[in-house]
Amino acid sequence: MASASPLKDIDEQYLQCCICMEQLKEPKILPCLHRYCRECLKRIVKKGAKKIECVTCREVHTLPKGGIKSLKTDFNTKNIIEFIQLQDSVKVDPLRTCIHCRREQKASAFCFRCNDFLCETCHAFHASSPMFEDHHPHIFSLSEAEAANLTIQKLSSLKVAPRCQTHPEKLSELCCTTCGNLPICMPCTYGEHRGHNLEEVRLLAKIQREMLKGKIADLLQYKEKAYSMQDEIKKAKDKLELNVDQESRKLQEQLDREGERIKKEIHDAEKESNTKQADLEERMKEKTSARKKELEKEMRESRERYEQACREEQQEADLNLRKIKEKNNEEKKQLEEGLRVMNNEIQELLASIRTQRDENVKKIKELSDHFDSIVKRFENVTATADYILAAQNDWTDVQCIPDLCRAVDLLREEVKRDNPGMENLSGVTIRGLSAGVTVRGKVGISEDVESIIDLHIKESKFITDITSNEDGTIAITGLRLSPAWQTYIAVITKGGSLQQQNILPVTGWKGARCSFLSQYLIAVIFGDNQVGIYNIGNKSRRFIRLSDVIMNCPTNQQVCRVTTDPVNDHIIVGCHSRDVYVFNSKLEHVKTIKLPDVIQGAGNIAMYEGNLFVCDSSLTKRAFAVALKQTASEVEYEFTKPTVGGSNWYSRSVCTDQNGYIYMLWCSGGRSIIVQCTKDGGQIELERKVDRTDNVIAITAEDSDIMASASPLKDLDEQYLQCCICMEQLKEPKILPCLHRYCRECLKRIVKKGAKKIECVTCREVHTLPKGGINGLKTDFNTKNIIEFIQLQDSVKVDPLRTCIHCKKKQEASAFCFRCNDFLCETCHAFHASSPMFEDHHPHIFSLNEAEAANLTIQKLSSLKVAPRCQTHPEKLSELCCTTCGNLPICIPCTYGEHQGHVLKEVKSLAKIQREMLKGKIADLLQYKEKAYNMQVEIREAKDKLELNVDQESRKLQEQLDREGERIKKEIHNAEKELNTKQVDLAERMKEETSGKKKELEKNMRESKKRYEQACREEQWEADLNFRKLKEENTKEREKLEEGLRVMNNDIQELLASIRTQKDENAQKIRELSNHFDGIVERFKNVTSTADCILAAQNEWTDVQCIPDVCRAVDLLREEVKRDSPGLDNLSGVKIRELSAGVSVRGKVGISEDVESIVDWYTREEIFSTTDITSNEDGTIAITGWTSAGQTYIAIITTGGSLQQQNILPGTGWNRVRCSFLSQYLIAVIASGGNQIDINDIRDQSQRFIHCSDVIMNCPTNQQVCSVTTDPVNDHIIVGCDSRDVYVFNSKLEHVKTIKLPDVIQEADGIAMYKGNLLVCDSSRTGRAFAVALKQTASEVKYEFTKPTVGGSNWYSHSVCTDQNGYIYMLWKEGGGRSLIVQYTRDGGRIELEREVDETHDVRAITAVQTKQGEKLLLPTYRTKKLLTYGLI
């Protein structure tokens, strides 16, 4: 057991890093208990790596989420190293600056709580003062005697408890065992660790130490076994050499015998070939006779078709005439229906006038309410500006003034507008029925261009996009060359006048696209994957890159179009691929949607009634309406291409009007055409060509000075400090973007949990909540400071007696320190104001005498308050402003961290600039005050004008509707005349078609006669040809037999090479085992030394975190040594198959004509079904299936049916169970019900299993495993599914890779490995079978197996196996219940033999097994527990 040994006795090598070979710095401990410097680990691990390999033991570990930084720190080692460094530094230079007196004197002690030195005088004060009572156990005297005898246990007691990760200002007091023995403080028990299992650290550490002692004692029992394994490994190596020599001699003797037998077989093959030649001559004669009869029959049928055509001629003519008459009647009904639709439109247009009048009256009332709110906002903005300018609080100014300035700018721009829309509201707009209106279309396009105007945009070279909002504001994006390519956005009027132009932050030949998100906000995208929002009110802009906010964004992806969905506050971005990205107005990525497969790229997009219109200007040149779902989409309908001038049109741009009609711009070879589609996009309404000289690329439808003074607090309006919800004084005041303030708790009461919006109670303006909800809203620090000071004054007036922060006595309070945030008595006030220790507190001490308190100004109160604390480092006060992060207050350390490279400003200068800017904006705003108050007069005039215009428009509409009614009646008459003409033309065309059909039938009859005559001439020629083919086939057969003899010789060399390969592989594995047990010895030493150090230190916090890892390492090491067999028996010999009597050079292995035997096999459980069978090279047979209770079983039997062992597998239910031998003793088993994969050891009946979803990322939930095979060469288990996925695992059941099968395969129901290829039985609807070459993650078809020729083509493949000679055997099933065994050649090219199984036996699996009597085929029955055996002869 570990003892409390002095630090001087610790081995220096224990404190040394094995990478840099120096003393450890910030030691990190891996799960294998080896320690390294943190920086050394960072150097050897690549950036972004998820694994780390131990330099000492080469064990690979998974890195935690935070990488190297998140590995556990070895606090015991770190404490020892830090103390040794402390001793060395004192010996070199004993003079140190005392933490109390700040004088440089000889260090007498070191306080581990303060982490600093103390002189002798301050040491005594520090150790006796009640202020430092909790420091006493952590003070260490630097005397030589005490330092020399310091033990690890004593050092651990000096160290303080670790700090809480959540609350760094507090020390840890408890352990959360739910979170892995995480040290936490008391506040954490009410926060994120509430309800967790918490333990007192001393009790938990004691339990951990006792557990570690027991595990170390248990581990030492196996130490001798680990050291003795090297002797066994040496014996296995010697035995391997002996076995290789014996197997080589046996193989040579067998090869000599097989060579003589193969020569005799070649002679027999030549004799058999002569017999086949005679049979072929007879079959050829029969085939020629059958062909003659077929040609005679064809001639008779041609004559009958000719006669039938004559009879059908008149019948078809009569039928076509009836169709023309029916169509004529249908057209007439459509025209009459059109007239009725026109009458309905009259009523709709009249109703539209009434609706517009009601809507305009409503909008006028809304305008009136709007300008009432503007007046109130004037008063709120100016009042807020007064108080901010009066306070002159630098930190408050730099954060609040930008928001206030934005509010001023928005208010000024809103009032500044010359036309608030009252001219449009004073009348109604009603379209007339144009000449292009028919009974099917309601909105037309003018025949010619109404106007062509020049756009007065500065230095514009190209225009790339156009958009408009509901108010008629038009925005254009484009490129200009000055001096390099620059992208601009311009806002223009309908007449082309430029209102504003702004250069966007992108250079180069990269065009921009735009779309209005709201009245003032425009969404903009660039070709270099930037997405932004431009505000035309204050010309501000915000931009992001796709790669900054979207995980796994393709590097070659380019955005090309943008549209908006104002209903959901979404920006929708299309790309050159099928990806569509959705952002909110904060430019946060919401989701990614995949477009349907028929779309290759979103050339242009637009939103309409929840659907996305997509112009695919790629090779397809099509356009679609797409219904968007969460992450996918589907095509609603496709737009019809233009009918004018060919079919080479491609869609370029799309928009909609206020009536819901769709307008699409199509282009082709410099031509452009505007197409109007119906509201449902189903058909084309109108087409309008654009002049070739105008290269259009986009389309849209647009159907007194204030000066703040330092006023006293007593002059503040009490209403300014009142909450409008609870009508009480504000508590924790939160300010909304509209500048109204409310209590934080009041806002939480009126906002539902999880809401993303908040409506202001005063002005009813709706704002988007920040990420943190109500807590994330800005705090009004000026108002908060005033309220807190007023409460401070009131509390002192009520009770002047307070407990002093220094002397702890309750006396009359003389002052208040805002830095300490507590009261001071008169004596301590004087000491606090003069002591150099409190020098930084002096500006923040406030005397409580009545005179000073009464005249205190807002500006004076702001100077007393301390700077806000840094959000990243709460223990430090802010000193700078980061303008890059929105004037965020930060400390000095932040400038070297996350704010490095940002724009930093000194707060005073920045606050001064902000205040001057606010003064100017307020002065500018007051110029428009009178205009806002006068708008109500104009609104009343607009209301009177509206009534007059409604009467005028109603009269005009009635006159126009009368004219349109007469025109439509005339159109009905013309349609009837046109249909009569079509009837005559159709009758003429029908006669021509009938005549052509007659000629075609006559031609076919002549051709049939020629074929009949040719058949008579070909009879003798074909007979001669067949004889020549037979002779050539005999010659090829003889050549194949000779080639077979060469193959046999090659097989001999392969078998000899196999012996050498196995020898080399086994020798390599023996070396690996030797190295493995060398590593176990090293791990023994490391584990025991680590445990000794931990038990000696007795540091509770280190124990509860580190001992669980040490115990896991002890358990793993004990289990690894505890195993009885390291596999030396298998490695001491080689396995080589013998050349059996069935080996042939061209397919001489046959299947017995009948079943050799049918035996019953027996089990302990009542069996319901047998689903699969497998065997190994030793002849061991395994069978899987279900019991009557629905349990999955595996049984080991003999060829005679005797049961050797049976085991019930985990999992129940009726599902597919398949099996395959991985090695001599290990069997891989799959069960489809739970997607479960097992490995069964038939020696001790042990099991290991996994579920696919536990080890495979993104494993489909509806996918089922259905077949299994093994690849012993690569130690792989290969699992097939009811899809095209094939999963590969190693013998540790770790997922290696996923391979996609070719498209022609739908389901891998039966699989087997053969010569590196995967044989696949696809028992789906196709019923086919293939040999597939496997690659890294894909595959390709090598060849397809020929289906059986017996009894039709309704066979489907079910199971497959191979014999030792390389022949392939496949079990085919038919829907009627029949089963067929088919033998294929070694290359799978053709069928050798077919054997049909008795229909009374329902067999579903097949395997080949080596027995004493030779190799056999075994087939178990599905329900009756019988085993069918066929001989291979």
In short:
This protein has 1433 residues and is of the alpha+beta class. The chain contains 20 helices and 68 strands. 25% of the residues are buried.
Task: Outline the structure in words.
The protein has 20 helices and 68 strands. The chain is of the alpha+beta class. Strands 13-14-15-16 form a four-stranded antiparallel beta sheet, with no helix packed on it. A four-stranded antiparallel beta sheet has the order 17-18-19-20. A four-stranded antiparallel beta sheet has the order 21-22-23-24, with no helix packed on it. Helix 6 (201-219) runs parallel beside helix 18 (1100-1122), helix 7 packs across helix 8 and helix 8 (394-416) packs parallel to helix 16. The longest helix is centred in the first third of the chain and has 169 residues, at 223-391. It is flat, with a radius of gyration of 46 Å. The relative contact order is 0.08.
- Shape descriptor: flat
How many H/I helices? 20
Task: Classify the beta-strand content into a percent band.
Answer: 15-25%
What low-confidence regions span 5 or more consecutive residues with pLDDT below 50?
Answer: 432-442, 704-711, 1139-1147
Strand tally is 68
Major sheet strand order: 13-14-15-16
Q: Compute the gyration radius: what is it?
A: 46 Å
Q: Largest beta sheet, briefly? A: 4 strands, antiparallel
C-alpha termini separation: 71 Å
Q: What class would the helix/strand composition place it in?
A: alpha+beta
Q: How helix-rich are the residues, as a percent range?
A: 25-40%
Q: What is the arithmetic mean of pLDDT?
A: 77
